[in-house]
Amino acid sequence: QVRLEESGGGLVQAGGSLRLSCVASGRAFSGYGMGWFRQAPGKEREEREFVAAIHWIGGSTYYADSVKGRFAVSRDNAKNTLYLQMNDLKPEDTAVYYCGAHNGRGGSFHYLGNYLDVWGQGTLVTVSS
Known about the structure:
Blueprint: E1 2-7, E2 10-13, E3 18-26, E4 33-39, E5 49-55, E6 61-63, E7 71-76, E8 81-86, E9 95-101, E10 123-128
């Protein structure tokens, strides 16, 4: 059973920074990769937006166009932990952020359907203008 636990969210002014963490435990790991998605206020679970992802072996990274140059995804394999460093935050970044485990079948990291249907509680990021 996979377990994912996100942390690090909070309230920050526009232009500020936050670092999110996601600890994975259990049989998560396909060893393939993990990603961050966000769910803006009023959006449904199926409308979660891809933010960033990282291939667990090799470290290739992927980003949504809206966060390129501002966010950086990284991982600590030994700790089974995924990170998201978020800089120059904007009000439109306000959302609940979730980490997900890719199902390991080789599909795009950008697509929500390629992740295991296991999610943590998420961590709320609120950016004030």
